[in-house]
Write a structure and sequence with these properties.
The chain is of the alpha/beta class. Helix content is 45%, strand content 12%. It has one domain: Alpha/Beta hydrolase fold, catalytic domain (Rossmann fold, 3-Layer(aba) Sandwich). The chain has a nine-stranded mixed beta sheet with strand order 1-2-3-5-4-6-7-8-9, sandwiched between helices.
Length: 409
């Protein structure tokens, strides 16, 4: 299946254009002013996190955001990474692109999920592109491409409905890699990005050498509860957590998947609403040994993620992407139930399961087709932010056996 790149892109829009983040000072000042003027709700005494983000915690975090957090410092750090924009099917796609100096480096496209940005991978870009400088094997080097999903971060605004369709996104990624001149490439994705990664193996299978995924469980939350008694050890714990997640933690998804426009008003008008909406997920999906979200990841990184969502208005547009994606997901599920047929195997697949993830191999891979399955006792849904060295190591290990054999001298 060849990527459908549409007919709306001109030669100029197909060009790779340099991009630099430059948020107007008036916009930064408006954010601080809005946070300072937040109207705070009441919270029943003693409820902690059981009913959502506690007021005391969010007030302290919001105070840091408005009074201490320095957007300009973060903006300068983000701009150290080469960034670009190209237009695919009329949609501007923002992406990071760092080439390795190693002659045998393999192109690798990494796709983030919700509620994140490509800067989730900031700490893995160096070790992936320049392993020699990080004490790693230079034979494991990659050229790294990290796009912003349409409707997220600086791939906003979306020009038309339908960019929540992950098939369409996968086709766009295939076209992006073609424009960059990469004939064959490796793929990684997390959360929604894992869906894009797997679909890339379908829409561009002749060019994808392998697919590595993490964090798929929150992106695939439906279906019957798991039989907890059918599992033992760590898998039993994961099954229990998966069922608890289904019971208690899907409110955000149901709202985004059914009424994204209603939600968009609060996320677009109130920065503290956007902060709470994202901070809750960073608390629920990160390492279970960490009590607070900014204990699992750096506080400045968390606030940078929220700031990007606020500055770009991505809270509402990413919710619409969820809505559109869930429509396609339901249609595919219905067709799968009707046909009773299995999808043909695609490129080799590797999976990394971190401490907060609830993936069980026998459930996710009943046909036992996945040969690379790693489990870690730390980290969570955002390994690029939580445990970057583990993610780098697992990517290197999986793709090591899939790399082209170097030509003999």
């Amino acid at each position: 299946m060849e990527p459908d790149t549409g007919t709306t892109d001109t030669a100029a829009s197909q060009a790779i254009r340099p991009f630099r983040i430059e948020i107007a000072q008036s916009t930064v000042d408006d954010l601080r002013d809005r946070v300072r003027r937040t109207r705070w709700p009441q919270q029943p005494e003693g409820t902690g996190w059981a009913r959502g983000v506690p007021v005391a915690y969010l007030r302290e975090l919001a105070g840091h955001w408005s009074e201490t957090f320095d957007w300009r410092v973060q903006e300068d750090r983000l701009n150290e990474v080469p960034q670009f924009v190209t237009t695919i099917e009329g949609q501007d796609i923002h992406f990071l692109h760092v080439r390795s100096a190693e002659s045998d480096a393999v192109p690798l496209i990494l796709t983030h999920g919700w509620p994140s940005t490509p800067f989730e991978f900031l700490d893995v870009i160096g070790p992936l592109t320049d392993p020699r400088a990080h004490g790693l094997d230079p034979a494991d080097a990659f050229h790294v491409v990290v796009p912003s999903l349409p409707g997220y971060g600086f791939s906003t605004p979306t020009v038309d409905p339908g960019w929540g369709n992950l098939f369409r996104v996968a086709q766009a990624w295939a076209e992006l890699m073609r424009r960059l001149g990469y004939e064959h490439y490796a793929v990684h994705g997390t959360d929604v990005g894992s869906g894009v990664a797997l679909l890339l193996g379908m829409v561009d299978g002749d060019r994808v050498m392998g697919t590595h995924i993490t964090g798929t469980e929150p992106a695939m939350p439906f279906g019957p509860p798991l039989d907890e008694t059918a599992h033992t050890g760590q898998d039993r714990i994961r099954a229990e957590r998966f069922n608890q997640h289904q019971r208690d933690e899907l409110g955000y998804l149901h709202l985004q998947a059914t009424r994204p426009q209603t939600l968009a008003y609060s996320l677009t008008d109130s920065p503290v609403a956007q902060l709470a909406w994202i901070a809750e997920k960073f608390r629920e999906w990160t390492d279970p040994e960490r009590e607070l979200p900014d204990e699992a990841i750096d506080r400045e990184a968390l606030l940078t993620c929220v700031s990007i969502a606020w500055f770009t208005g991505a809270g509402g547009s990413s919710a619409h992407s969820t809505y559109e994606g869930m429509q396609v997901y339901r249609e595919m599920a219905d067709q799968s139930d009707d046909s009773g047929s299995e999808q043909p195997p695609g490129p080799p697949t590797g999976v990394a399961v971190f401490a907060a993830d609830n993936m069980i191999k026998s459930v996710f891979d009943p046909a036992d087709r996945i040969t690379h399955w790693s489990e870690f006792d730390t980290g969570g849904h955002f390994p690029g932010l939580e445990t970057p060295s583990l993610l780098v190591g697992d990517l290197a290990a999986f793709f090591r056996g899939l790399r082209p054999v170097p030509a003999s001298g």
